[in-house]
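Progress note, sequence design subtask.
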């Protein structure tokens, strides 16, 4: 297993362990009954306690500190302990002469990390004619890169998880810059605590650092303090939410990408009255959703289920929703799924935003997990401030 694979698995483990969006700061014994307003309040207090960052490096460090709050002191200590030797290995392994093939010059390198190309705003495509959306990955640490990293080590000598992630990302950027000599680098990485460090690094190399929004944003201090040269968001509302978490307020550009606003050539042919878009629900919550949708089905409504491509257990979903159509996400695109639906249902999802952008009605599920639904307003969920119906209202009118 490569070091990158090992680190990726570590990150996935932490993401699953945290469940941070809905459970940060709640005592274990009281987690199910606690009001999430306390959670948001505590996040706000912690952000305020950190104060105003003096530069991009400190912005990244403050974002790192916010994220480590979700892990707790024990996990944070272990991460820093493990990160120290890995950072040393990286330092020497990629500090040697690395073969870089200088390829055709590109105006923009877009690190998609598996996300679709159509999330890149059209204005960027017009500005940067030659775009590389599938760059060959590699790691390179030049003498200048190491000097930059040493400055970070001197400031935060005990935060080795922070140092290691900065080391890895700088090595990645350095390799791409040597390959393509770009004018700009675009990513979908405002959630990464390395983002502001990389903005400073790119500035040193006369390269613009651009972020592209790719998923729903609420009050969640994982996304605090960050700064890019430009950060493309889907609505002014997101800028207000992110700025309230001390992200730099001058970076935001509002533009709806093609991933949200579908091509006019796509035709809407409704096959189902409702499509429910699943996330990472537990089996217990899935069964609650099933009971609600089955009542709609018995009242004569055609129901479709869209499993989550990463989180859903397909066998379980098919078993629980045996009365409904279960979409094959490998064969039916999200565009097709929405265009064949009378309305889109979910607790919270980017899909609801996509539906709104294409004049498809949305229904917010306030029934299967009422505790989490009640937290959404405190979190600042954008769809609550857009035209929508609640699932309880739809059910009441149908049965």
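Output:
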């Amino acid at each position: 297993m490569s070091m990158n694979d090992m680190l990726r698995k570590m990150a996935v483990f932490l993401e699953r362990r945290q469940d941070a969006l809905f459970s940060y700061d709640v005592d274990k014994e009281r987690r199910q009954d606690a009001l999430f307003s306390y959670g948001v309040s505590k996040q706000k207090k912690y952000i305020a306690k950190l104060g105003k960052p003096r530069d991009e490096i400190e912005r990244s460090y403050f974002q790192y500190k916010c994220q480590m709050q979700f892990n707790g002191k024990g996990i944070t200590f272990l991460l820093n302990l493990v990160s120290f030797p890995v950072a040393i290995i990286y330092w020497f392994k990629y500090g040697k002469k690395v073969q870089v093939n200088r390829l055709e010059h590109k105006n923009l390198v877009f690190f998609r990390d598996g996300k679709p190309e159509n999330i890149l705003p059209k204005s960027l495509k017009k500005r940067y004619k030659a775009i590389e959306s599938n760059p060959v990955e590699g790691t390179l640490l030049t003498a200048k890169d190491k000097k930059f990293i040493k400055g970070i080590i001197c400031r935060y000598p005990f935060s080795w998880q922070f140092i290691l992630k900065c080391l890895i990302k700088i090595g990645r950027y350095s390799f791409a810059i040597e390959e393509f000599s770009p004018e700009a680098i675009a990513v979908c990485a405002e959630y990464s605590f390395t983002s502001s460090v990389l903005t400073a690094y790119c500035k040193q190399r006369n390269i613009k650092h651009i972020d592209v929004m790719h998923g729903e944003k609420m009050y969640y201090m994982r996304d605090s303090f960050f700064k890019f040269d430009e950060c493309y968001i889907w609505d002014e509302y997101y800028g207000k939410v992110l700025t309230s978490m001390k992200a730099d307020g001058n970076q935001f550009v509002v533009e709806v990408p093609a991933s949200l606003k579908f091509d006019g050539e796509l035709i809407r042919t409704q096959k189902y009255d409702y499509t429910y878009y699943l996330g990472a629900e537990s089996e217990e919550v899935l069964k609650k959703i099933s009971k609600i949708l089955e009542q709609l089905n018995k009242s004569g409504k055609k129901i479709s289920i869209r499993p989550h491509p990463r989180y859903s257990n397909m066998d379980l979903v098919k078993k629980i929703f045996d009365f409904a159509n279960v979409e094959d996400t490998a064969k039916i695109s999200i565009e097709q799924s929405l265009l064949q639906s009378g309305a889109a249902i979910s607790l919270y999802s980017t899909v609801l935003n996509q539906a709104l952008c294409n004049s498809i009605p949305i229904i917010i599920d306030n029934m299967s997990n009422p505790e989490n639904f009640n937290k959404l307003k405190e979190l600042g969920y954008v769809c609550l401030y857009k035209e929508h119906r609640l699932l309880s209202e739809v059910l009441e009118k149908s049965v």
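The two ends are 55 Å apart (CA to CA). Work on this subtask will continue into the next period as scheduled.
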